[in-house]
């Protein structure tokens, strides 16, 4: 069983982290999970079986307080889904929660989040004659997905509205779980077990002292191209080969959703530019080349939260973005590794199996070939 995060396993990685090394190091952010494990692999007999390995992740950008925050996004490769993007592109605002789940559960998660927003006044209502109209306003929950069909009975549509509410109720600040949790439960990464991961960076005071937090749902990449610190570990590691009894997709078929949060006062176009640095972190681990992957990114700032109702906002000059770009790339790379290090072996539908990274074998390789990165 893997018990360590990447740094805790004895590796040296650049950059100063926040106290939790998580997206929740950006003040106000809460993350919650509902992890769904139903039945045993032998219970799977086809779509609709009493078997599931899936879940829901919810990110509340300002906790339970309604918010309209500046947002930007970018697709490295668009084979996937992220709801609410048209309004984000036009307005530059993020109105409400973010959730990540499996491909076939986007609809129910989106609708349940909209209902939760209405029931909890988590929106900006229309105003008539000076009075807000209850339940009438903007409801644009943002829901992303990656496909967990090799582990999960994804065509069984096992995620329910109650699961979404459970994930919201679970949302909290502070340290958060990683690996086989929430929407990342049934995911693979570089043909090892993947899932949910997070990391953060705190900039030097000379650079503003801002915090950058990242959350990923990692379900992408190939073993052939997997590398750490420039070492082709996917080719050098032995054993722990994925077992695919149902079918074997084209290598690299998969997706990654990456969410970046910061307390830097940046505008939507700057957040879009921050998103464009996410692929640097993905590429350092040997992914980002695949046409059949959905590599979809979003970034938001937790400051200027009153900008939706006011005409003035605080702005950071483009000349000061370089440290944020660097922090983003570093945190993305580490968040993916944290997802893989926290993940555990899983047997899914049709007795398909993904193994966790063999950490002792990996440690031996990196200690020999990349000693400067090992404690």
Q: Would you kindly provide a brief summary of this structure?
A:
Belongs to the peptidase S58 family. This protein is of the alpha+beta class and 375 residues long.
Q: Would you mind describing this structure in some detail?
A:
- The structure is a single chain.
- The longest helix is centred in the C-terminal third of the chain and has 21 residues.
- By secondary structure, the chain is of the alpha+beta class.
- The protein contains 8 helices and 16 strands.
- About 20% of the residues lie in helices and about 25% in strands.
- The strands form 5 sheets. The protein has a 6-stranded mixed beta sheet.
- The chain has a single domain, classed as L-amino peptidase D-ALA esterase/amidase (4-Layer Sandwich), CATH 3.60.70.12.
- It starts with about 30 loop residues before the first strand and ends in a 6-residue tail after the last helix.
- Helix 6 crosses helix 7.
- Pfam families: Peptidase_S58 (PF03576).
- This is Aminopeptidase.
- Belongs to the peptidase S58 family.
Number of strands: 16
Under the CATH scheme, which architecture would be assigned? 4-Layer Sandwich
The dominant shape is globular
Q: In the CATH hierarchy, what is the superfamily?
A: L-amino peptidase D-ALA esterase/amidase
- Biggest sheet, spatial arrangement of strands: 4-3-14-13-12-11
Radius of gyration: 20 Å
Give the percentage of residues in beta strands. Answer: 25-35%
Query: Mind summarizing the main beta sheet?
Result: 6 strands, mixed
The average pLDDT score comes to 95
Helical segment tally? 8
Structural class, judged by helices and strands? alpha+beta
Q: Can you tell me the number of structural domains?
A: 1
What is the CATH top level name? Alpha Beta
Helical percentage: 10-25%
CATH topology: L-amino peptidase D-ALA esterase/amidase
Give the termini distance in whole angstroms.
Answer: 21 Å
Order of helices and strands: EEEHEEHEEEHEEEEHEHHEHEEH
Low-confidence stretches: none
